[in-house]
């Protein structure tokens, strides 16, 4: 079976600052991979480049056989090859952010049906049925007529996840989905992600919740200064760090990951 995602020599610089320096990896269908590493290692930037919310400086990204390459032309300008596939990528990829990004003037149901109606062109009844099914999966169907301001942070993030689920993406990207939550609300969001992983969703997750990453991931990719320092199953990464950078990071978080 062909990989759902291929990332090859992904590079990203902001001015003179290099954030990604040639990241390469692949994902199979149903695989859960956690991107881990110290702050500033390029984890969130990698996610944003995969979905082309940030344009890479160079490299190639392939989603289910459709590829986009970014090259530097003879004038040293960034050129996107097969840019039309960006729209294809965004139909296949769902992304959950640190902030919830819900429309404050729309109900929970309205937030989830918005893209179904205006992007997928579903009629209102079908969109609402699909939205309620997604909300049920994250335990939020009973809150469908509330507004975001009436929800806790954990509830808002679960609605954000339902909004993505309703679009039935082939790949889900989670960028620190619990970082904006109070500690007592983190568990309810992690429970939803754990359920999705158990049901066979393909998930690329950026997280500092190392205990959770160790339990839910098929593989963990450690980024350090914009490169892949180690790509291994969780037990291999924790028991046999590939470098001093990995070892130092694990030593700093081991009390929460053990």
UniProtKB/TrEMBL annotation:
Q: Which SUPFAM superfamilies match?
A: P-loop containing nucleoside triphosphate hydrolases
Q: Where in the cell is it found?
A: Cell membrane
GO terms for MF: ABC-type amino acid transporter activity; ATP binding; ATP hydrolysis activity
| Superkingdom to which the source organism belongs | Bacteria
Keywords, A to Z? Answer: ATP-binding, Cell membrane, Membrane, Nucleotide-binding, Transport
Q: Name one GO cellular component term.
A: plasma membrane
Q: Which residues does the UniProt record annotate as the domain ABC transporter?
A: 5-250
Q: Which Gene3D superfamilies match?
A: P-loop containing nucleotide triphosphate hydrolases
- Which Pfam families does this entry report, sorted A to Z? ABC_tran
- Membrane topology value: Peripheral membrane protein
The family classification in the record reads: Belongs to the ABC transporter superfamily.
Q: Could you tell me what this protein is called?
A: Amino acid ABC transporter ATP-binding protein
Gene source species: Mesorhizobium tamadayense
Give the organism's phylogenetic lineage. Answer: Bacteria, Pseudomonadati, Pseudomonadota, Alphaproteobacteria, Hyphomicrobiales
